Amino acid sequence: MNARSNYRYALILGIIPFFQIGAAQTLPAAPAKVAPAPSSVGAYDWFGRAGWVCGTGASTSSAATKPTGQCGGIFSGPFFDLEIGVMGPQANRSSVSGYLSTNVWVPLIPFQKLGNKYGVPLVVGGYTRMFETGNAVDYGLAFAHPIDSSHSIQFEVRDYCADSNPAQHNVVFRIVWFTGLPD
Fold it and tell me: What DSSP string describes 133-168?
């Protein structure tokens, strides 16, 4: 073969794939992808929530350290909670104390960016009036996990810091069950 026939041979071999592509049957287009619906964050999808809270922990002060428990009801709206219940015993004060607590909560990850079914971490904090003990500032971390589109379970650790005589910390590990409230 000479150079001219090598050139023709290479040209023909180069053109053949273009004819094969043109003669190929056209494949149907893939179906358009539909954006998935945003996943639920459970009761936090609702404007209002109500639920139950229970927990256990310890009450510590210079006078004594005692195990403590807590149970109550909670009503929550956008970025606030109102809670009423009983807690006790407190260090060197009373066996059981009723409490009224108002708190704010802030998600550490915006709900819109979550897009998953796992939940959202929260920072919580506010003011608590413990009727047998005194005033307390409470603060902590929580993790709200959706159960379905209208229920969530929330795991918390919260410190109720009371500046009473004696000053004390009531550290409680809490579980909260929320149900979304219809408008």
Answer: TEEEEEEEEEEEEESSSSEEEEEEEEEEEE-SSS-E
CB within 8 Å of 6: residues ≥ 6 apart: none
Cα separation of the two ends of the chain:
87
Residue that the structure tokens 């909260």 belong to: 176
Peptide bond into 36 cis (omega under 30): no
Reported as a single tens digit per residue, the pLDDT across 59-113 is: 888 777 888 899 999 999 989 999 999 988 876 667 788 999 999 999 888 766 5
Residue type, 136: A
Q: The pTM is what? A: 0.71
Helices of type H across the chain = 3-23, 111-114
112 residue type, one letter: Q
Q: Do residues 109 and 86 touch, judged by C-beta distance below 8 A? A: no
Nearest to residue 136, comparing CAs of 78, 48, 68, 49?
Answer: 68
Check: CB of residue 143 under 8 Å from CB of residue 119. yes
3-class DSSP state of 14: helix
> CA 122, CA 124: separation in Å to the nearest integer?
6
